[in-house]
Amino acid sequence: MSERTLAIIKPDAVKKQVIGDIIKRYEAANLHPVAIRMMQLTKTAAEGFYAVHKQRPFFNSLTAFMSSGPVVVLALAGDNAIKRHRELMGATDPAKAEPGTLRAVHGTNIEFNAVHGSDSADTARFEIGYFFPEMDLVAR
Ligand code: ADP
Ligand code: MG
């Protein structure tokens, strides 16, 4: 069943100049970009995006990091896209991520871990809507 998920190429990965490598891996996995946006989040916008984490000890640091430089936000579509994207990303901590996953290859540590991916259908809907109006999502 085709579904959509939200991906963010985080500021650390943009600084490392691996936008192209990451998008190449999405395409190789048949996770088709249906919307792409490059932007720099404000601290407030990062806080809104990560609101579910606001009680976590790393919330302030995470939202400072996510607003520290440009990001690339993508909606990806494909069969079982949410779960398959999480598998392609690897574990939150790059040191624990399977070899060859995006975080194992491009992440630095548990915070600077290169990419974000929605973790459920509900969060995907919220997160895609946070960045893209429905009319910006192409059909593919
Ligand atoms: P994931 O991105 O794998 O879904 P979480 O939703 O748990 O992971 O956390 C969101 C983001 O917060 C992570 O991707 C990472 O950038 C950061 N983060 C998670 N855990 C920690 C931690 N213990 N210390 C610092 N940053 C963290
Ligand atoms: Mg998460």
Any overview of this molecule?
This protein is α+β, with helices and mostly antiparallel strands and 140 residues long. It has one domain: Nucleoside diphosphate kinase-like domain (Alpha-Beta Plaits). A four-stranded antiparallel β-sheet has the order 2-3-1-4, sandwiched between helices. Helix 3 crosses helix 4. The longest helix is centred in the last third of the chain and has 11 residues. The protein is globular, with a radius of gyration of 14 Å. The protein starts with a strand and ends in a 9-residue tail after the last helix. The mean pLDDT is 98. Bound molecules: adenosine-5'-diphosphate (ADP) and magnesium ion (MG). Adenosine-5'-diphosphate (ADP) binds next to loops.
